[in-house]
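Working notes for the structural subgroup meeting. M.R. asked for a predicted model of this chain before we commit to crystallization trials. I am recording the input and output together here so anyone reviewing the notebook later can reproduce the run.

Input as submitted:
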Amino acid sequence: MKLILVLLFAALALTGSASAVDFSEVQFSGKRVTVCRVDLRKEALQLYLRDDDGRPIERFERLKALLEARGQTLLFAMNAGMYNADFSPVGLFVSGGREIEPLNTAKGFGNFFLKPNGVFVVTDAGAIIIESSKYPSLKERVILATQSGPLLVHDGMIHPSFNANSQSRLFRNGVGIVSPGVVLFAITEDPVSLYEFAAFFRDRLRCKDALFLDGTVSSLYSDKLHRSDFRMDLGPIIAITAGK
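Returned structure, recorded in token form:
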């Protein structure tokens, strides 16, 4: 009997360690949020935009098929920043250490341009979220970067433009930093305001820095949850894969 229990616990331990992302549903102020915890010490995030023929990928199922043709399995994916009508990123996009789109510090209308906005970056030293104007001062080699806006939380402070009494509620997703090695992606299962979403990252997830990725289009792919959202075609996609 002891041997059976030991083998069972060993199997459970192996199953847990093999998981690329830990998923949990969290309640905050009566709203449901799915949180995806990524340990960058064990897993590598990757950004995707176009297929091998230069066509926008747009959907999780197309990314899954593209990866399977390469002998890889899609484990986790989420929309990763705002995009233009041709699905190109509105702001900075660095994939595999190569800059595809430059930093965008222009003035404009909409959430992306609500300053301060920011960049989610993975460097050799780990993950950070940095205010966009500070990005050029980074010294570390950038492996991955996606620019979006606004910053939900910056150095522990909720974005000053957010209204705590706002009634503008949408499905939203974003990313927060726990430490250089641990990143939290979140997607709401109920409509929330930007203030509520920022408060969730700061007060529930304890993230000093968090970045809004998008609203309405917000989508999650999870092999573990048997989930593949489709609300509309996507631009940048961030993902974790398994295989060669």
